[in-house]
Input
Amino acid sequence: MRSILMTLMLMLSTVAVAQSAERLYNEGKSYYDRERYTEAVPRLKAAAEKGHKKAQYRLGRCYDKGYGVKEDDQAAFRWYLKAAQQGHAKAQYQVGKCYKNGEGVEKNRVKAFQYFEKAAKQDNGKAQLALGKCYLKGKGVAADRAKAISWLRKAVKDEQDGKEILQELRAEAAAGDVDAKLILSLVKK
Output
């Protein structure tokens, strides 16, 4: 009887912690969405410290962009990584970018590729584009034109990001970017 009561109390406390993390995240997100970052950050941080992956991702964005806090690439990377390790696709893409560019962490093309791949497999269009570029140029992985084309086509057809990706590629190509021109030629076929 005592062990049942203890188990029940443990379950209730776990639910309460999860609810409070969700409540804190929702409050923080509400402030974030209204660009009231100094009010968002404490709530996001409290939720993030409780393990809330969306809060961890948004807190990473705050540190990445200097929203409500001093810009800090290392802090951004740490928070992105925590969310990425919980399977958050946008955070996985951001961790890939950090490794690719050496922002907040030592540059590592192989790890960048690995995180881009994780996010791309969750239908993240920006990660699909990044993964396609990795395969196209052999960055972090052996070059593979067929895989590059497959991922690049998925990126431009992505429901959420595809139109924006295509617009950016066209703008870059118009500005003379050789890689953008190549990618556009590959996705048209």
Summary: Residues 11-17 have pLDDT under 50 and may be disordered.
